[in-house]
Amino acid sequence: GAVVSQHPSWVICKSGTSVKIECRSLDFQATTMFWYRQFPKQSLMLMATSNEGSKATYEQGVEKDKFLINHASLTLSTLTVTSAHPEDSSFYICSARVAKGTGTEAFFGQGTRLTVV
Amino acid sequence: AQSVAQPEDQVNVAEGNPLTVKCTYSVSGNPYLFWYVQYPNRGLQFLLKYITGDNLVKGSYGFEAEFNKSQTSFHLKKPSALVSDSALYFCAVRDTGMDTGRRALTFGSGTRLQVQP
User: Which of A89, A100, A102, A107 to mutate to test the interface with B (most CBs of B within 10 A)?
Assistant: First the structure.
């Protein structure tokens, strides 16, 4: 299957600093990537939909200025957590679909565990 | 709107016994249904999907799922469980309709499968 690589796998940062997470589709082009957040023992909550070459679409309640998403190419989307605080500590997962057509499954990155201290 | 319900937080089964992980869904149109598995601190791995056709879908690692339109269910099954199947399982749905290429999946709350030796 298609491979989605997410980097870094884990990161610890100080409160107030910014952290960038990369999501790459290694062997396919992804016009759309999705960013999810997962709290311990909970399901994945969609944060935003990232479309190549245009602004991301954020879900209700997700702060656009805090979670900056850039999808500059068909193989790379980045999520930057700006001015991180301990409550931003979470597991962040990206996914991408192979094609725009219906019925194709999404492939997921391995996730990034962010800890803000 | 689309939603998924996984009524069981945890399912315990003895190795070698059959397992079932339940999932029901709600969509306004026709559903695309997916099962994913997640191991600790990892992203999601695709198991199987139902798009159309045969209601019994076979997937990876010996798993299968049965689509039941009248009961709006898509239960995950395996004839003989392995200890290595122990993980977190997510059911997901995407509604058919316009612009489905850009539509994210909606996930259930997850069910932890514990297979005892």
Answer: A102
